[in-house]
Every structure is written in C-alpha cells, then in structure tokens.
Design goal:
26 strands; four-stranded antiparallel β-sheet; six-stranded mixed beta barrel; mainly beta
Length: 385
C-alpha cells in the first residue's frame, strides 16, 4: 500500500520504547499480507492491522462504521481516547464543517480506501521478556468508512512509513529504527514472525543506502540475477527521477507481489520462460500478464536457480523458489513479479519490492543512518534477542 497522504499526531513516548515489539501473523485472504498484533485503548482491544511500510498512518476500524464488516474498537468505551480537534496544528485537512473533529481521507494504490477521524490513544505492545509496554497519546485514524478486506481478521493498517512535511510517524516516535523478521506467508503456525520498534531493532546483515522520499523507503537497485546469470537490464531503469515522483525502487511490506518497470519485467519473464521450456506446461491466467505453470513449487522446482536483487553497497536480497513464485492453487504456480504499469500508467517507471520477496528475512530500517538491512535467517534464532 502506498502513495498515501494523511494527517498524523504523535506526542509522549513510553520509557520502554526501546523494547517495543509485536507478533506478526500471515493473513488468511486473497491478498496475502502480514498483520501486526497489538492492542489499543483502556481497556485494551486487540488489533490485527496490515504491516505497511508504504504509508505512515495507523488506522483501525471504529464504531460507528460503514462497509467495515466486524468492527473491533469503540472509542466511546476507552478511558484513554481523545479526539483531535480541527484547529489543532496537526490537522491540515478540511474538517467538513465539524470543528471539533479532525478528519482524514486516505487512498492506497492497492487496498481499501479509508475515511474517518484522527484521535489519540494508548497503544499496547509486548517486550522481549514477555511483559507489556505502552505508548501514550499516539495519533491514529479511527476509520468510519472503508472497503474491508475479505479476511475477517483485518482490523486496519499499521503504517510504518517515514514522516513527511505534513505528517508525523510512529517510527520516529520510538527511535527512528525498526525491524521485522518473517518466515513464509503460507506457514500460518510459525510462531516467530516479529516486529521490533525502536532501539531494540535488529540491524544486521547486508546493508544498502536508503532514501526517505515522499513517505516511502527508496533504495538503489543495480541489477537482477537468475542463477549465475546477470540479466540484461539497464540499471538506469531503476533510478529515482528528481523530476518525476513515481519512479525508482522502494520497499513495501503492504504489497504482496514485486512490481518491476515493464522492460525489466519482460526481461525476467523471458528468462523464466526459457528455463521452463519443455519442462512444465504453461497455464493461461487472466489477466494475461500472469506467468503461470501447471505444477507444485515444492515438488517441481527443486534445484530452481536462486534469483537475487543486487543493491548499492553490496547488499543482496536472494530469493529461493518460494519467494520467486507463489502457489495459485494446488496444481498451478505463478511468478510473483508483475509489470508495474498494470497499476496505472503513472506507475510505469516505479518498481516495488513486495512481501513475497522478503520472506525468510529480517529486514531492518535505520532512519538515522539511512541504511536498510537484509539478513536471511530463521526468525526463531532471533526470538531471544
């Protein structure tokens, strides 16, 4: 989820902000994502909100709500909820004639739109010693109208994007660092998927320079390889254009697939097609840009060459078969990469590294040093850190 604009309030922080963490759960939906398990309010109300580095607003479904499905938070029953008035310096939206309430209207490239009020609330997280820690007066969106996901677990969006000129960020509130370690989107029983906020973030592995632009985390992609072969892709296709905002490469935990500029996608697609020539039958899918085959990833892709994204500074994001493809059905798998222009002509120069490509990694963001870290690891090994 990306390209969002919103208003966000953030004030006091917990004394334990360095040790703030939350479990992540794979979503059971047609759009696989990871959900952040945290609570808000007093008494605390559990939430499962989409982990989203492509936007900065945290919002949850609130009563009363239209098109929300099951709602989970009633601000009138929380002792720590406060509405943000329209005349607050943090509120630059048109409040629609309601001076006592600040409103927001957020639109995503992919995902539900959300409208509602901005308020402040107590957020409740875990600590490494299985205790609890609290962040006070956290600004968040109380959504009163959104197109809900088909997954009934979904209660909102947990924005981890950086602050912009008109926004604040939870990340900066807790120390300008965070990391998340995830396993496989399809392993629902895996217990070690974890988000860590603040100084406790695990900054290990290969690192690459990161630019914070327009509320997103941009990186410099220098090339893509498949096995021992570096694909013939002009690295200039991945450069951020100072005169055009929708260009470059950024990391987005709220996007499932990876999207490449069309010519880079076509080069990768042809290489994959050549590798499968005569081995597995293709399987037509709608829309036609999907590259799919009859078969099973675990059974038929043993020995498939690893794909790697090569970033500036020597950092590599190396993908095995389960991170290059996804199982569409029990007998069909598809390439987990698509051409960016299918999201609209304005995105044809933009590439997004999605969540399937980040499986089996600890990914860490340091907004102070402006470095992004990739560490391929079983998250169980980090559980006691």
């Amino acid at each position: 989820m990306s390209m969002a604009r919103f208003i966000y309030l953030s004030q006091k922080s917990s004394q334990k902000a360095h040790d703030t963490r939350a479990h992540l759960h794979p979503g059971i939906s047609t759009v696989p994502v990871f959900y952040v398990n945290f609570s808000i309010g007093q008494p605390p109300v559990p939430q499962l909100a989409v982990l989203d580095t492509g936007s900065s607003l945290i919002w949850v479904k609130c009563q009363p709500c239209e098109q929300c499905g099951a709602t989970t938070f009633d601000p009138s029953k929380s002792l720590t909820y406060a509405t943000l008035p329209c005349d607050s310096s943090y509120c630059t939206n048109d409040c629609g004639g309601y001076p006592d309430e600040c409103w927001y209207n957020i639109r995503y490239t992919n995902g539900p739109d959300s409208q509602g009020t901005i308020g402040s609330e107590q957020f409740n997280f875990e600590t490494s010693d299985e205790g609890k820690t609290f962040l006070y007066d956290v600004g968040f969106g109380c959504s009163h109208n959104n197109a809900h996901f088909s997954d009934e677990q979904f209660t909102g969006v947990f924005g981890l994007g950086p602050a912009t000129s008109s926004t604040h960020s939870l990340v900066e509130k807790v120390g300008s660092k965070f990391s998340y370690c995830i396993g496989n989107l399809n392993y629902f029983e895996y217990a070690y998927n974890m988000l860590i906020l603040g100084e406790g973030a695990i900054l290990e592995g290969d690192s690459t320079p990161m630019s914070v632009i327009d509320g997103s985390y941009y990186v410099t992609l220098e090339g893509i390889s498949l096995g021992e072969k570096m694909l013939d892709i002009d690295p200039n296709l991945f450069k951020k254009n100072d005169t055009w905002s929708d260009a470059g490469v950024f990391i987005d935990s709220g996007t499932t697939l990876t999207w490449l500029v069309p010519s880079a996608y076509q080069t990768l697609r042809k290489e994959v097609e050549d590798l499968f020539q005569g081995l597995l039958p293709s399987y037509p899918m709608d829309p036609a840009w999907h590259l799919c085959y009859s078969g099973n990833i675990n059974r038929d892709l043993q020995g498939f060459p690893a794909m790697a994204f090569h970033f500036a500074g020597g950092a590599d994001l190396v993908l095995d078969a389960e991170s290059v493809f996804y199982q569409e059905s029990s007998s069909v798998f598809c390439l987990a990469v698509g051409p960016s222009d299918i999201n609209g002509e304005r995105f044809k120069d933009l590439s997004i590294i999605g969540m399937i490509a980040q499986q089996n990694y600890n990914v860490a963001y340091d907004l102070v040093s402006k470095q992004l870290y990739f560490q391929r690891i079983d998250c169980e090994l980090l559980a006691d850190d």
